[in-house]
Amino acid sequence: AHATPSHQSPRASFTDGSLSCGDIYMLCEVLKKHPQVTTLNLSHNDLSSTHAVRFILQLLDTNHRITTLTLDETHIQPHHLSLIHAALERNKALQTKSTNELEKTALHAKYNTWRDERLAERVELVKEELTRRAEICREEETLWKVLQRGYKSGTRKLIREMRRA
Q1: Where are the alpha helices (DSSP H) in 6-77?
Q2: List of residues 6+ apart from 47 with CB closer than 8 A
Q3: Dist. CA 27–CA 59, nearest whole Å
Q4: Full-prediction pTM beyond 0.70?
Q5: Nearest to 91 by CA among 71, 70, 66
Q6: Looking at residues 1-15, what average pLDDT do you find?
Q7: How far apart are CA 39 and CA 60, in angstroms?
Q8: pLDDT tens digits for 34-64?
Q9: Nearest to residue 14, comparing CAs of 32, 2, 28?
């Protein structure tokens, strides 16, 4: 028996035909807690006992990352093989869903970044516009004060001239 690590699809292969039902139990218990393994080869082992099949099904129910299981020449009954096949199909569907959700999350993150950048640009434009308007208001206020002073001084001059006349 040997494990073959791979960056894309970590595999575990036990094909020498020496696994007993107890070995299958221990192997399945270990693999339940080993989420990196996605491919398992148990070919050429006698897995005809219902206990061995149950251990494999429990493994597939616990570790959803296992999506490929090779069982050549294992003497597993056809109805048990169909149960194992259904569990593998469920795991594949779960992995596809997880991948799609990760892609969707990444897409949302990109959109949120883009939206935040556009929002920051808009905020800058609004700040610039408010600064420009505040400057115009200050200019108008200054002009108004000048006009008021001029009006008051002009009125005073007019009153003085009227008094003189």
Answers
A1: 21-32, 50-62
A2: 19, 24, 53, 56, 71, 74, 75, 76
A3: 9
A4: no
A5: 66
A6: 62
A7: 11
A8: 888 999 999 999 999 999 999 999 999 999 9
A9: 2
Token code pair at residue 93: 């569907």
Q: For residues 70 and 43, is the Cβ–Cβ distance under 8 A?
A: yes
Q: What is the mean pLDDT of residues 145-149?
A: 73
Residues 59, 46: Cα–Cα separation, whole Å: 18
* Sheet arrangement for strand 11-13: 2-4, 11-13, 39-41, 68-70
Coil/strand/helix, residue 99? helix
Q: What is the pLDDT of residue 2?
A: 45
Helices 50-62 and 78-164: crossing angle in degrees, nearest 10, is 10
Q: Which residue has the tokens 């429990």?
A: 58
Q: What percent of the chain has pLDDT over 70?
A: 88
Tokens describing residue 111: 């959109």
pLDDT category, 29, cuts 50, 70, 90?
A: very high
Distance CA 11, CA 69 (A): 10
Using CA atoms, how far residue 59 sits from 9, 64, 104, in Å, is 18, 8, 29
